[in-house]
Amino acid sequence: MNIYPLFSSPVVEIQVEEDLSQFNKIKSNYEFVESNSIGSNNSFTTINRNILDDFPEETKILLKYFNSFKDDALKFDSTRFRLTTSWATKTKSNGYSQFHNHTNSVFSGVLYFDHISGGDIEFTTTDNHTIQLNPPSEINLLNMRSFFLRPRKNTLLFFPSYLLHRISENKSEQDRYSLAFNLFPTGSIIAGDSSITF
């Protein structure tokens, strides 16, 4: 039997080694506003949507990891990317966010710069099965409908922006912080009659 897990949506998890403690300033130096999205509770984002502009040295570190992922693993080494938006999230005790994806971007990243006591990140599939099957006897990467990652301090994630994801319920007593950002191609992409320069 040959099984081909076609058309991967890679999610990469990296443990950052560099000191990113400057990001702790986000907790006290930025104004947060509560989400009014249906399906969210006690979920906040910063008003500032370009937060990484205030952290140029740390941004270089994040981009170094992203470039390693896109060049070495995905082999997109001839396409350059730039940051478009960046913001922080705060999820209070018993809080959670709705499933969402990030439009107008190609890849997204999340950095957990603070200790996380609760609130996994959950990814879910967007495929539409026309028949609901009985649950599988064992969950694996070929049949799962949801995938959970438990963030740890200094964990950095990259994933395609189209992937639906959410913050699951923060069952701890501590506020849960993360830094999110989006990336978009820049420069020229040569693709015959579909070539474009950003």
Give the mean pLDDT. Answer: 94
Overall morphology: globular
- Sketch the topology as an H/E string, one letter per element: EHEEHEEEEEEEEE
Major β-sheet strand ordering? 1-8-5-10-4-3-2
Q: Class by helix and strand content?
A: mainly beta
Output the radius of gyration.
Answer: 18 Å
CATH architecture classification: Sandwich
Number of strands: 12
Helix content: 10-25%
Total domains? 1
Please report the distance between the alpha carbons of the first and last residues.
44 Å
Q: Uncertain regions: pLDDT < 50 for 5+ in a row?
A: none
CATH topology: Jelly Rolls
Describe the structure in your own words.
With 198 residues, the chain is mainly beta. The protein has one domain: q2cbj1_9rhob like domain (Jelly Rolls). It is 11% helix and 35% strand. The chain has 2 helices and 12 strands, in the order E-H-E-E-H-E-E-E-E-E-E-E-E-E. A 7-stranded antiparallel β-sheet has the order 1-8-5-10-4-3-2, with helices on one face. The longest helix has 18 residues. The radius of gyration is 18 Å and the shape is globular. The termini are far apart. The mean pLDDT is 94.
Summary tags:
198 residues, mainly beta, three-stranded antiparallel β-sheet, seven-stranded antiparallel β-sheet, globular, 35% strand, Jelly Rolls, 2 helices
Short account of what is shown:
Helix content is 11%, strand content 35%. The protein has 198 residues and is mainly beta.
Tell me the layout of helices and strands.
Elements: E1 12-15, H1 26-29, E2 32-34, E3 41-46, H2 56-73, E4 80-96, E5 107-112, E6 121-124, E7 146-149, E8 155-160, E9 164-167, E10 176-186, E11 188-189, E12 196-197
Antiparallel strand pairs: 1-8, 2-3, 3-4, 4-10, 5-8, 5-10, 6-7, 6-9, 11-12
